[in-house]
Design brief:
The chain is an alpha/beta fold. The chain contains 7 helices and 6 strands; from the N terminus they run βααβααβαβαβαβ. It has a 6-stranded parallel β-sheet with strand order 3-2-1-4-5-6. α5 (99-109) packs across α6 (122-136). The radius of gyration is 15 Å and the shape is globular. The two termini are 21 Å apart. The mean pLDDT is 97.
Length: 172
């Protein structure tokens, strides 16, 4: 059995760049420690937009260019990226359409005992990818470490944690 840690979008633009928050900056040491101490497979996602981001539906609803491919803001925080052992899963929307397949493949190689999520933003990309994992591997316990997550606002972070608890996700 293996455990999986998913590090969601710990990128410069979400930490202290275009969409950064004090709460996001504050969790970086927690996330680093979680990765360093985790026994199992660690995967990273990376929010990835192109230069025409403002023309997309997301760009029209959130007109703040961020995580544009190959920019400084797109990069995973250096102290976290240094711990990465696999290619990041690039995603062009909140939830990764590839994540379910990646988890199924890992589970086929060696059964997954649990999947833990950390990262940004709790209320958008973390919750979206948690629900994808839950849909693809409904019998695998899903854990969200709230000390390693931050939302767009403190209130929306708390709301997302409550919503995930209602969907049988263990929030620690």
């Amino acid at each position: 059995m293996q455990n999986v840690l998913l590090v969601i979008d710990m990128q410069n633009d979400f930490i202290d760049g275009a969409l950064g928050t004090a709460e996001a900056v504050a969790i970086v040491p927690n996330v680093k420690k979680k990765i360093e101490e985790f026994e199992g497979t660690v995967l990273f996602t990376r929010d990835t937009h192109e230069t025409w981001y403002l023309e997309t539906q997301e760009g029209k609803n959130l007109p703040v260019p961020h995580c544009i491919r190959d920019t400084e803001g797109w990069q995973i925080r250096p102290e976290l990226d240094a711990l990465r052992k696999t290619e990041a899963i690039d995603k062009d929307t909140f939830g990764s359409s590839d994540l379910g397949g990646v988890l199924l493949d890992l589970n086929e190689e060696e059964p997954i005992d649990s999947i833990t999520f950390v990262g940004l933003c709790t209320d958008i990309c973390v919750i979206s990818n948690v629900m994808i994992a839950k849909a693809f591997l409904p019998e695998v316990p899903i854990i969200v470490d709230s000390s390693c997550c931050a939302g767009v606002t403190v209130e929306s972070h708390e709301n997302a944690l409550k919503a995930m608890k209602m969907c049988q996700v263990q929030v620690i």
